[in-house]
Specification:
Helices cover about 40% and strands about 15% of the residues. The chain is α/β, with parallel strands linked by helices. The longest helix has 25 residues. It is globular and about 65 Å long.
Length: about 400
Amino acid sequence: MRSILSLKARIKNIFFSILEKFAFSSDRNNKPIVHSKMRKILVAEGGGIGDLIRVLPAIECLKDNFPAASISVLASPEANEILSLFSKKDIVSEVIDYDLKSRHRGFLNKLFLILSLRKKHFDLIYAPDRGEGMREEVLMNFLTGVPHRLGFQNGRAGSLNTIKIELEENVPIVKQNLDILRHAGLQVTKEEIDLRIPEKDLLEAKLLIKQLIQGNTAPFITIQPGASWNAGYRCWPLENYIALIKRLIKELQLKVIIIGNTGDMETAGKRILKEVESPAIISVMGKTTLAQMAALIKVSNLFLGNDSGPLHIALALKIPSVAIFGSTSPEQVIGQHERCVAMRKNLACSPCYVHQHDYRPDCKDFRCLNEITVDEVFHAVKKVLSDNFHEGIS
């Protein structure tokens, strides 16, 4: 199976190379961006929750640079719910679904999407594509006929963008997303991610926490043990989470809430509850909306989890965090001033995934994750709580 997938990937890359070469030779648009002519802008980010979160400051900047323009956002159904938490959501005039798992899976479905975007006559597309789907998505952006296409370049991938910068391995993605705008000669007027949790969701979260802590002042933490993409390469072993939670409850008297999306990891929440067997832990995995999950993170004393969407929510909300990294790069995720301890192993092969377009995971032993010990994470949690713990839930 692995060899078949590898062969398909090589054939696909050859196909894209031919199309890129032909398209590049036919594309002669190097015209400067004229502000007065920018009436319709498309922000395209088809990745997950964390990817869309890290585009929000750029959306604000685009509106500030082109106040008369309408801004549409192309996003996956899994991620676009985060726009409801965007403090400036009113500047987004339209949200367009990009459903790679269903509606837009396959060549013909993508072609129909391209044709529908062409009919909208966008003047500029800002698309910070990176990673495995980068070449395909940059080519799709070219085929929409949008004259100004802003994004990354990584080797040949991204060559069809009219304004592009090289993707860097050791710089936070939020900053790199804004650097695309700087390279286009635009003003960066916003650098921080600003999420706002609805009051009703915050109230529900606080009520749930009060039931859990039962009137005492014990700190509580939210834990997210899953990941939606390549989970085997990003998730710390579940048995380690179970052993850690037992220690956190016994030795630090912590209260624990397990969070996460529906799907296979929902069974993980049930397994954790079964093996921990304590009134100090509850699981809402698969039982919350994104806003409700964000509210729980917001009112918690600490977030602990893998490199996945909830971690990006915690960082945006300035919640003290302990994040576990395996194949991915902490430097691309954690900003300089964020209160987050990155648990990682500096192996010769890691990080192996830094959003390169030709990434093909072939690891079998996941040493980068398996060698992070329960003791190491326990002491990291203890330290962060002692440095940042705020008492009580108002």
